C-alpha cells in the first residue's frame, strides 16, 4: 500500500531558539485530509565514553520538560551546519572535560518520529584523557559529572535515574559489546 | 551541585490535537535567567511482539515529520486517562490484527528530554494469535504489516528502514534476550 501523505498547506506556529513548530494539512493515502503537528529540531549527538578503568562517563542534568534531574550520556544539539563528529568531540569535552584519541559513529536514530524530526547520532569515544584546558559549558548548562560501572548503570535504569532513550540505548550497546546478556 | 531550574513564568504558544508548546522563563542554578522551549505530549506505548515462528511483528508507516516511511514496532499515543497496558493491547490489535495471551512492561523512557516530556512504555507481548474480528486503525492511520527475522531486522537498521529509538531499543532487547551478542 502507498503510505505517502502529501502536504496541502503549512502553517507556521512558532520559531524558537531551538525548535520550531508547524501544522501541515495533508492528503492521506485514501484521499481524505488530516492535520499533522510537527516539531522541527536541529538534531543532536551523544557520546558513549568508557574510561581506561572501565567506567561509563555520564552527566546528571536538570531537564525542564520533566521537572527533574536525570543521568544521561554526554550529548548536545548540533549547531547550524556543524559536522556531527566535531559536535560529538566538542560536547564530550565541554560536559566532561575529556578528550579522546578517536570517535566513531555507531548509530543514528529519530527520537520521536510521530511528531518531531529530531535525529540523534551516537558515537563511541576511544582513548579518553582528561584535558587540562577543556572548553567549558554553555552559559545556561549545568551538569554533575559521574563515572559508573555497567552494573551501576543498570541499577540507575531500574531506579529511573537513567530514564531516556539514548542513554538506555547506550547501556544496551555496552552490554552487547561486552557480551553480557540478560 | 544543585541543578534545579525554577519557573519564573510560562507562556503558552500552541494547544494542538496531540502536542502543546510553551516557553518557560527559568531561574538557573547560578541565579541568572534563561528560556526553555517545551513540548507537552500525552505519552505513548510500543509493543515488542514475536510470533510462534520467531518473527518480529513490525509496521511500516509514513512519518510526516521525516517525510518518509520507516519500519517500527507497533505503537501509539495514550488516550487521556488510558491505562498504558490497555493501550498497548489496543494498539497491537489495531495495527497488526494480533491479540496476545499476556503483555508485560519491560522499560519506560523519555524520548527527547531536552525539549519534550514524551514518555514511551515498552511492552513485550506473549502468546500472539491472529484475531478474526480485530479492531481497525484510526481513520488517519495507514500501515503495512511486516513480519521479519532478527537478522532481517538488523539489516533494516543498517539500511535505515528501521530508524527510530524505540524500535532500535526493541531489536537490542531481543538480541540481549536471545543471548546474541555482537
TrEMBL record, chains A, B:
Record carries keyword Metal-binding: yes
Cofactor names: Mg(2+)
GO biological process: nucleoside phosphate metabolic process; ribose phosphate metabolic process
Keywords, ordered alphabetically: Hydrolase, Magnesium, Metal-binding
Domain Nudix hydrolase intervals: 39-170
GO molecular function: hydrolase activity, acting on acid anhydrides, in phosphorus-containing anhydrides; metal ion binding
Keyword Magnesium among UniProt keywords: yes
Cellular component GO terms, alphabetical: cytosol
Binding-site residues for Mg(2+), renumbered to this chain: 75, 91, 95, 141
Gene3D superfamilies to which the protein is assigned, alphabetical: Nucleoside Triphosphate Pyrophosphohydrolase
Subunit structure: Homodimer.
Name recorded for this polypeptide: ADP-ribose pyrophosphatase
Species of the source: Niallia nealsonii
